[in-house]
Structures are given as structure tokens and as C-alpha cells.
Amino acid sequence: MAANRTFSIIKPDATRRNLTGAVTKMLEDAGLRVVASKRIQMTRKQAEGFYAVHKERPFFDDLVAFMISGPVVVQVLEGEDAVKRNRDIMGATNPENAAEGTIRKAHAESIEANSVHGSDSDENAATEIAFFFKPEEIVG
Ligand code: ADP
Ligand code: MG
């Protein structure tokens, strides 16, 4: 499969513990290349818009509060089968279920504060990349 792109967020629990480099190394070691990256403080409006798909879920308000509780690092990752490759190295949403060797197994604090976001489809990856990056900010 040809190289393609996915979207990643290093979440506030990880930036707070100074794990930006450790998480990025795990992504790179998994065969993903960081082709765009910026550290930002998300606004409430941005977080609500980004997670709009979850707005009916009971954890939505807590999730938004968590995502704006500190800086995040938004990234575009490139590699073969990038969406799946990233989901595999992230591990399960709940760190209690995450496999050995995954980012969430190694670093997540809880099902909510689980260190990383990753797109779940090529279509959502394209939408999520466009939510945070202009095309000229992505340099392969
Ligand atoms: P994933 O990030 O693995 O794709 P989801 O898309 O289902 O997981 O959920 C988005 C985010 O919402 C999760 O990464 C996590 O931060 C939070 N979340 C999911 N389920 C719960 C839950 N039951 N309680 C609290 N937070 C949750
Ligand atoms: Mg998801």
C-alpha cells in the first residue's frame, strides 16, 4: 500500500509529564514520519468542534475539559498504511486493555487521559488534518 497520512494528537496528560519526545519516538519507531507538528493550547470551541462526533456521549464535557487542560501537540504522520499503523502503536482506548509495547500501555493514565489521539479512517484523517493544518504547513 502506498504511503499515506494520518492525524495524531499528543494529549495534555502526556505533554504535562514531558512525554512529547517519548511518544514521538514510539511513533517514529513504528515507521511513521512526522511531516507536520505544532504545540498548541486548544480553545474550548476547537475541542468541541474536533470531538463533535462524540457530543451525545456521556463523557463529552469531561473530554473537552481534559483536552483544554494543557497544551497538546498536533501532528500529521506519514507512512505505509498510516491510519492502521498509528492505531496499532497507540493501543486500545482503555489502557487496561492496551497491548504490551503500545503507547497507551506504556504511558496512558486512564481511559480518558490516554496520551494520544489517532484518526480511525482515511476520510477522518483528511478532515482532522484540515482542521489544524494548512497544506503549506505539511512538509513531507
Ligand atoms: P479512541 O481515541 O481510541 O479513538 P474514542 O474515539 O472512542 O477512542 O474516544 C475518544 C476519546 O474520548 C478517547 O481517546 C478518550 O480520551 C475519551 N473516552 C472514550 N471513552 C471514554 C469513557 N468511557 N470515559 C471517559 N473518556 C472516554
Ligand atoms: Mg476515536
TrEMBL record:
Q: Which InterPro entries match?
A: NDK-like_dom, Nucleoside_diP_kinase
EC number, UniProt record = 2.7.4.6
Localization:
Cytoplasm
Pfam family, any one: NDK
Q: Where does ATP bind?
A: 11, 59, 87, 93, 104, 114
Which residues fall in a coiled-coil region? none
Q: Which UniProt keywords apply?
A: ATP-binding, Cytoplasm, Kinase, Magnesium, Metal-binding, Nucleotide metabolism, Nucleotide-binding, Phosphoprotein, Transferase
Q: Which CDD domains did the record assign? A: NDPk_I
The answer on whether this UniProt entry bears the keyword ATP-binding reads: yes
Which residues act catalytically here?
117 (pros-phosphohistidine intermediate)
Q: Where is it predominantly found?
A: cytoplasm
Required co-factor(s) are: Mg(2+)
The UniProt catalytic activity note for this protein reads: a ribonucleoside 5'-diphosphate + ATP = a ribonucleoside 5'-triphosphate + ADP; a 2'-deoxyribonucleoside 5'-diphosphate + ATP = a 2'-deoxyribonucleoside 5'-triphosphate + ADP
A GO molecular function assigned to this protein is:
nucleoside diphosphate kinase activity
Q: How does it assemble?
A: Homotetramer.
Output the NCBIfam families linked to this UniProt entry: PRK00668.1
Query: Could you say which protein family the record assigns here?
Result: Belongs to the NDK family.
PANTHER family, alphabetized: NUCLEOSIDE DIPHOSPHATE KINASE, NUCLEOSIDE DIPHOSPHATE KINASE DDB_G0292928-RELATED
Protein function: Major role in the synthesis of nucleoside triphosphates other than ATP. The ATP gamma phosphate is transferred to the NDP beta phosphate via a ping-pong mechanism, using a phosphorylated active-site intermediate.
User: What is the protein name for this chain?
Assistant: Nucleoside diphosphate kinase
